[in-house]
Sequence to fold (418 residues):
Amino acid sequence: MKTEVLDKSIVLCRACDLVVRKRALPTGVRALCPRCHTNLYDTPYCSINGMLALCITALVLYFPANFFPVLEMHFLGSIRTTTIAGGAMAVASQGYWVVGIAVLVAAVIAPGLLILSILTQVLIVKYRLKVPFFRNIYKKLLKQHSLLAQLSMLEIYMISIFVSVFQLSDYTDLYFGIGTFCFTMLFIMVIFMQREYDIEHMWSVLDE
Amino acid sequence: MSKLSRPPQGESLGLTNCPTCKFLCHLEQGNCPRCGQAVQSRDRTSVQKSWALLITAAILLFPANLYPITIMTSQGQVRQDTIFSGINHLVHLDLLPIAIILFTASILVPMLKIFGLALYLTAISYRLPISKRTLMAGFHIIEWIGRWSMLDLFVISITAALINMGQIWDAKPAPAATAFALVILLTQLAAKVLDTRLLWDRLESKDDTN
Ligand SMILES: [Zn+2]
Fold:
C-alpha cells in the first residue's frame, strides 16, 4: 500500500535511477535531476490538432523535396542535377552500398516514416483510441518512435547541401533547385512537429 | 542513517522505469503494464556490449582515416583524398569555415566520441576519480553530437551524384567511406546500448558523492 502512494508522486531519473518527488510545474519549465542534471519531466505541451496540421503539411512537402533536384550544376554548358535519393544511388552504384543505405535511411526513409508514424498516432488519438486494434497499433508506433527520431537527420543533410555548394563553388556554378526550397520547408515543418510532439504525453494518453 | 549516506535509488524501492515507455513499474511485475515490454532494474551486460561495439569502432577508425575517402578525376588527373588531406585541401582553397565544419564532424567528433565513451566505460568498471556529473554531461553531449558525423557522407553522396563526367571531371567515394560509415554506426550503438544507471550505483566511493 505504501508503494501505491509512492507511484503517483515520484519519478525515477532515467540516467541515474535517483528517486525524485514530483512537483507541479509551470508551462515551459523543465525539471532536471538534482544529481546528474538529466531532463526529468516537463509539463507536456502537446497540441494534437497542431501536430495534425504540421504532419499533413510535411507529408505534402515530402514528395517534391525528394523528387525535385536539390542542387543544379551548370558545367561547360550542360546542366547536372541531383536529388537526395539520387546521391544515395550514386554512391551505392560505385559499390559503397553501406554509405548509400546510410544516406537513404537518414535523409529519406526515416524522416518519411517518422512523419507517417506521427500522423497515424495523431489520427488514432483523435478518432479511434477506444478500439483495441488501433490501440495496439498505437503502442507499436510509440515503441518505434525514438529510433525513427534518432535516424532522421534532415538538419544534417541541410547543412551538407550548403557545405557542398561552398566546396564546389570554386570549380563551377551551382544553383538551388525547387527541391531545395521544398526540402527547407520540410525541414522546418519537421522541427516544429518534433517540438510539439511529446512521447511521455503520447504514452499517457493510453492511461486515460 | 543509511538514507543520508545513500540517496534513494529506484532499485532499492523495487521500482524502475520501463525502458520503452518510461512508465513507473514494480520490478516484481516483470513486464510493463502499459506497453508490455520486459522490465529490469539494470542492464548489467550493457557495459560489455558497449565495449565490444566501441572497440570495433576504434579499430575501424584507422582505415577510415588512413585510406582515401574520395577519388577525384579532373582532366585525366586522379587525386585521392583521405579525410585529413581533403580538409587540408579546403584550407588551401581558403574555405576555412567549411574546413572547420568538416574537421569537427569527421575527425574531432568521432575521436572524442570513442575516447569519451572509453573513459565512461572505464569509469563504470574501475571507479575513476572523475566527477560523475561531469561524466554524465559529457555523455549527453556525445549522444547528441555523434549524428553530425554523417555530414561528410552526405557531402560525398551529393558530390558523387553531381560530378560524374568521365575523364573530364569525376568524383567517387573511396574505401574509407565504408569504414567511416561503420564507425558512426557503431559508436552511436555503443552509446545507445549503455545503461547509464550503472555509473551511479557506485556511490560509496568518496570521489563521486555528487
Ligand atoms: Zn539522474
About this structure: The beta strands of chain A are 10-12, 19-21, 30-32, 39-42, 71-75, 78-82, 173-176. Chain A has eight helices and seven strands. Residues 97-128 of chain A form the longest helix (32 residues). Chain A has a mean pLDDT of 85.
